[in-house]
Specification:
With about 70 residues, the protein is mainly α. It has one helix and two strands; from the N terminus they run H-E-E.
């Protein structure tokens, strides 16, 4: 009978650990998603900065509405 009790206890402990691991996985997924969004935002800002610096260094203005260069 003690073998049965220990098996039941082991099952309960494993189920509890499984639950905790699933919660941790969900939290890590949320963290990964937040980091990806932050990186996307940073990349967009860096692209804008590169575009601005290229314009500044080229000495040309770009008409934002039409996308055509002005001289």
């Amino acid at each position: 009978m003690s073998s049965f009790k220990s098996t039941v206890e082991r099952i309960r402990a494993l189920e509890a650990e499984r639950k905790n691991l699933l919660l941790e996985i969900e939290e890590l997924k949320k963290m990964a998603d937040a980091k990806a969004k932050a990186l996307e935002s940073e990349i967009t800002m860096l692209r804008d900065e590169v575009k601005s610096l290229r314009l500044l260094l080229s000495g040309e203005d770009i008409d934002v509405d039409s996308g055509k260069k002005k001289k």
